[in-house]
């Protein structure tokens, strides 16, 4: 079978991306080879991003500086939103606008996957609350057993440090436009327990 090693190498690299299978990788490879100007633009953007984007030393989100623009912004509300991944910050910023501060913990507690408080950025949350004058901590973690366990751990950690801070969790429940019959029991239970006045 006729093969060009560079093509195979590029396809194998593309398959490592989320949601890209072998056929998609093949189509992308051929597209890039047929559109070398676009391929060069993507290559340059990727190289520049890898070289210049790092993690903020304070919140652990994406940043082009040691301390990100969000952490440097003194006009935000004194609310610290705890999230699992740096991309969660980007999503919430889109939805909320420039409103809160964030703290990326880098995963959720899962001893079976070697995710412990020592391997995550959890233990520095109390010092952020104290030093930054935070009035509320919003837990925006996944609605999973691990996410809930992580939330309880953070809540207990803040209480241990006797910090006078409000601790809230984002609501979990039924997505807008979906049918009740498609929901699992836990989702329905959470939606009913977290109901609001209408």
Structure write-up:
The chain is α/β, with parallel strands linked by helices. The protein folds into 2 domains: 5-52, Orthogonal Bundle (Helicase, Ruva Protein, domain 3); 75-169, Dna Topoisomerase Vi A Subunit, Chain: A, domain 2. It is 44% helix and 11% strand. It has 8 helices and 6 strands; from the N terminus they run H-H-H-E-E-H-E-H-E-H-E-H-E-H. It has helices at 5-15, 22-34, 36-52, 69-72, 86-96, 125-131, 145-160, 185-193; strands at 54-55, 62-63, 79-83, 101-104, 136-140, 166-169. It has a 4-stranded parallel sheet. Helix 1 (5-15) packs across helix 2 (22-34). The longest helix is centred in the N-terminal third of the chain and has 17 residues, at 36-52.
Main beta sheet: 4 strands, parallel
How many E strands? 6
So, CATH architecture of the largest domain? 3-Layer(aba) Sandwich
- How many domains comprise the coordinates? 2
How far is the N terminus from the C terminus?
Answer: 66 Å
Order of helices and strands: HHHEEHEHEHEHEH
Mean pLDDT: 90
Assign the CATH class of the largest domain: Alpha Beta
- Proportion of residues in β-strands: 5-15%
Shape: globular
The structural class is: alpha/beta
CATH topology of the largest domain: Dna Topoisomerase Vi A Subunit, Chain: A, domain 2
Helix content: 40-55%
Q: Nearest-angstrom radius of gyration? A: 21 Å
Question: Runs with pLDDT <50, length 5+?
Answer: none
Q: Number of helical segments?
A: 8
* Sheet with most strands: strand arrangement: 4-3-5-6
């Amino acid at each position: 079978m006729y093969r060009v090693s560079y093509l195979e190498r590029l396809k194998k690299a593309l398959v490592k991306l989320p949601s890209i299978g072998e056929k998609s990788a093949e189509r992308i490879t051929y597209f890039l080879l047929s559109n070398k100007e676009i391929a060069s633009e993507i290559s340059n953007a990727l190289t520049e991003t890898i070289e210049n984007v790092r993690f903020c030393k304070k919140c652990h989100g994406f940043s082009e500086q040691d301390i990100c623009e969000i952490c440097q912004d003194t006009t935000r509300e004194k609310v610290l939103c705890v999230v699992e991944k740096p991309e969660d910050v980007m999503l919430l910023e889109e939805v909320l606008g420039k409103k809160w501060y964030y703290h990326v913990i880098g995963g959720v507690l899962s001893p079976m996957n070697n995710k412990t408080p020592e391997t995550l950025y959890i233990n520095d949350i109390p010092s952020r609350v104290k030093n930054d004058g935070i009035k509320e901590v919003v837990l925006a973690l996944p609605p999973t057993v691990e996410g809930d366990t992580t939330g309880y751990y953070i809540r207990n950690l803040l209480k241990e440090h006797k910090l006078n801070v409000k601790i809230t969790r984002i609501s979990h429940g039924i997505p807008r436009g979906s049918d009740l019959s498609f929901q699992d029991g836990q989702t329905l239970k959470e939606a009913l327990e977290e109901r609001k006045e209408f």
